[in-house]
Amino acid sequence: STASARAISTTAPSMSNAAASATPFSPPKPGTVSGFVGAVGNTPLIRINSLSEKTGAEIYGKAEFMQPGGSVKDRAALWVVKDAEEKGLISPGGTVVEGTAGNTGIGLAHVCRSKGYKCVIYMPNTQSQEKIDLLRMLGAEVYPVPAVAFDNPQNYNHQARRHAESLENAVWTNQFDNTANRQAHIDSTGPEIWAQTNGGQFDGFIAATGTGGTLAGTTRFLKEKSEGRIQCWLADPPGSVLHQYIQQQKLERTGTGSITEGIGQGRLTENLKPEVQDGLIDDSLHVPDADSIRTVYEMLHEEGLYIGASSALNVFAAGEMGKKLGKGKKIVTIICDGAYRYQNRLFSRKWLQEKGLLEAVPKHLEKYIVL
Ligand code: PMP
After folding, report:
1. Cβ contacts of residue 191 below 8 Å, gap of 6+?
2. CB–CB of 217/273 below 8 Å?
3. pLDDT tens-digit profile of 111-122?
4. Which of 189, 316, 336, 340 to mutate to test the pocket of ligand 1 (most atoms within 8 A of CB)?
C-alpha cells in the first residue's frame, strides 16, 4: 500500500540526525512528511485528457517530475542508500559514490545531504555544465572523466567503484546492477499505481528503460498482484538493443543514437534481467525521436505539462499501446522528469535543426521554440 511505501521512506533506522526521523505530528497527518526522504514517492497519477480523447483509450502518467529531487530516480537513490545502511556498508559520515550522468546523481546528492553523507559523482565529460553545476550546488564532489566505453577501465562506472574501494566507510551504489534500484519500484511505484487505480483496475503499463529499475520493479509488482492480467510493455528509443531483444531475443547494437537522455540500454542489466527472462515483459514498442519531440510540444500546448524527452517517449508509447489494446482500455506510464534539465536543447531551434528534428514540431507549435 502507499502507507507502507511512506513508512519505509520515513523510518530509515540509521539517520545521522535524530530529528530527521521524527514524525512531525502524531498520529501522522496525510501530506505531512519528515525531511527530504519523507517527501519521496506518493506522486499523483495524471489523466492525460487530450491523448485519451485522441486515442479512445484512457492514458495516465505518474507525475515523477513532482518528486522532491525532480525525477523518478529519487526513489532509486533513496533505496540504494537505505540498502547500503541496512547491510552495514555505510554509517554516519560515510561517502556514497556513483557513476551517473544525470538524475540518479541529483537524487543521490539530495538524499546524501539530508542524511549527512558525502556524495561523489563520476560522469562522462560530455555532460552539460548545468548538470555539473547543479550537482556541485547540492554538495556533491563531481569528477567529469573522458567518455569511454564500459569495457575501458577508465569508464566512469569503474572509476566510481575504485574511488569507493579506496575510502573507508564508502559505498559504490552501482545503480545498473544493484537490485535495490528495482526494489524501490516493487515497494513504492507499483503499490502506488495499484492503489491509485482502485486495486489495479487498468489494462496496461509501459515505460522506457535506462537501468531497468522502473520498468522491471513496477512490472514485477503489477504482474504478481494482477496474476498476469495487466500487460507490461517496454518502450525503447533508437540505439537501444532491448526492443529487438524482446521481439527476437537478439542483443545487437543498431548504431543510431537518440536525443532522449537517461534511457536506452546496450545490455540486460541485473535490474532488468529477471523480468525479461521470466517473460514478464509482454511486448515492446520502438519510438523514433520525432514522435518523442512532437509529444514534448503537444503535452506543453495541450496539457500544460512541461516534460522531458524520455517522459514524452513514454506518453506517446502509452497512446500507441492504448490504440493496440483497444477502445476504453486504461494505460499507465511514467512521466520521469520535467523539461527543465534539457530546455536549452529541446526548445532551441539550432539544436532541433542539428538533430534533424525541426520538422517534428508541428507548425502551430513552433511558437514554443524560443531559444
Ligand atoms: N528517464 C530519465 C530522464 C532518466 O534519467 C532515467 C534514469 N536513467 C530513466 C528515464 C529510466 O529509469 P530507469 O533507470 O529506472 O530505467
Report:
1. 1, 2, 4, 5, 221
2. no
3. 999 999 999 999
4. 336
